[in-house]
Design goal:
six-stranded mixed beta sheet; tt1808, chain A; globular; alpha+beta; 12 helices; 2 domains; six-stranded antiparallel beta sheet
């Protein structure tokens, strides 16, 4: 990985000059993409390992097909350096090419931004985005060169041969599907589930509404920015039809929201359009923050961050990026013994969140390492 780090540092140094020259696709491939692929262990001069202009079913071609044992395992489509990679048609095209050939992974890149897609997922092409990594120091928003290199190393020849990306992708997308299914179930749990909970809890006195409310509290998946589905019905209202109860619950929610002047932002504001890994990291952080106590903990959805409060005091602020999370904690950097490289002092740097310690998270291992700092921050607000 040391060679990759060196190449990334060179790219960062030369990026301003390259942008002034407005590199088109061919020079972008030669000057930027090829050296990075080489640093990742792919021999772009060996057609048995990297096939250039890989043919597709419609007579067109993908710029690179990276191979293991002469079998394509990753397609890479290159664009010009200044291409924002926001064209849905281009994304759909490369993802479709990979899926049609049974190739699980594909990348869309302008040499600086690398978007990694899992083609076999059953969803629109943009939603197949597993994660994104950027070599631009500004776009990577404070991530160290080592963090960027580790994200890129996931599709190195060595890691692809180990199946590391396959394992991570399966886990991330599976967790997302199961999480979505649980949210659907718990927002309006079927009677069978409620009966199972009552039976497992060995307390036949638990009411349906008690179990529903408890499931929402325990999972922490209730979104304050959305009206509740299947909300508790007031005593005496059970004779109302389901549609009438739903309208009544929504109207009551809207009245309460107006009275409290709640934020117009919600979880969707922060997660829509984000890669699956970034969403999974946020959900994992949410579980960490909401596990510290069963009462007095709350989320506040702001324009740029989600704040976690203990009573009236914020102990964690998080901004969800394309490349991971940026977290702020109200701690003193000087009081942290041997802080990891992804933690820094921002007391003299402008930032969105509450707190002077910034934690830049790009993977689950880093979040696990940061959990103790988050707990310390929570305990400082007690």
């Amino acid at each position: 990985m040391n060679r990759l780090i060196q190449v990334i540092e060179t790219v960062r140094q030369k990026l301003p000059a390259w942008r002034r020259h407005c590199l088109k696709e061919t020079p972008t491939r030669t000057i930027v993409i090829d050296p990075l692929l080489e640093a990742l262990g792919w021999d772009v001069r060996d057609p048995d390992e990297v096939q250039l202009e890989y043919p597709t079913v419609d007579g067109k071609s993908v710029d690179y097909a990276l191979k293991l044992n002469r079998k394509p395992v990753l397609l890479v489509e290159a664009k010009a350096l200044d291409d924002p990679l926001d064209d849905v048609k281009a994304t759909t095209q490369v993802v479709g090419y990979a899926a049609n050939d049974g190739i699980v992974w594909c990348i869309l890149t302008n040499g600086i931004k690398w978007r990694v897609y899992r083609s076999i997922e059953k969803c629109p092409a943009p939603d197949k985005l597993m994660y994104e990594v950027s070599l631009d120091p500004e776009a990577s928003e404070g991530m160290t060169v080592e963090q960027v290199a580790r994200q890129m190393w996931r599709f190195s020849r060595e890691e692809m041969a180990k199946g590391s990306l396959d394992a991570l992708g399966e886990q991330t997308f599976t967790d997302g599907k199961v999480r979505k299914a649980l949210q659907t179930l718990l927002s309006d749990p079927p009677r069978q589930l409620l009966n199972l909970v009552r039976k497992a809890g060995a307390d036949q006195n638990l009411t349906t509404q008690q179990i529903k409310a408890s499931l929402m509290r325990i999972t922490g998946e209730v979104n304050p920015g959305q009206p509740p589905t299947g909300a508790a019905v007031a005593p005496g209202a059970s004779s109302l039809s389901p549609s009438a109860r739903s309208r009544g619950a929504k109207q009551a929610w809207e009245t309460r929201r107006a009275a409290r002047s709640e934020s117009p932002y919600n979880e969707a504001h922060h997660l829509t359009g984000k890669p699956q890994e970034a969403v999974a990291l946020f959900k994992a952080l949410d579980r960490v923050c909401m596990s510290f106590a069963l009462s007095d903990l709350s989320r506040r959805y702001l324009a740029k961050s989600v704040n976690y409060d203990n009573g009236k005091r914020c102990f964690c602020s998080v901004h969800v990026l394309q490349t991971g999370l940026r977290i702020w904690l109200p701690l003193k950097y000087g009081h942290i013994e041997n802080p990891p490289a992804f933690v820094r002092d921002v007391s003299n740097i402008g930032h969105w969140g509450t707190g002077d310690v910034e934690v830049r998270i790009s993977n689950r291992a880093e979040l696990d390492m940061a959990a103790d700092l988050i707990r310390r921050s929570f305990e400082s607000t007690r």
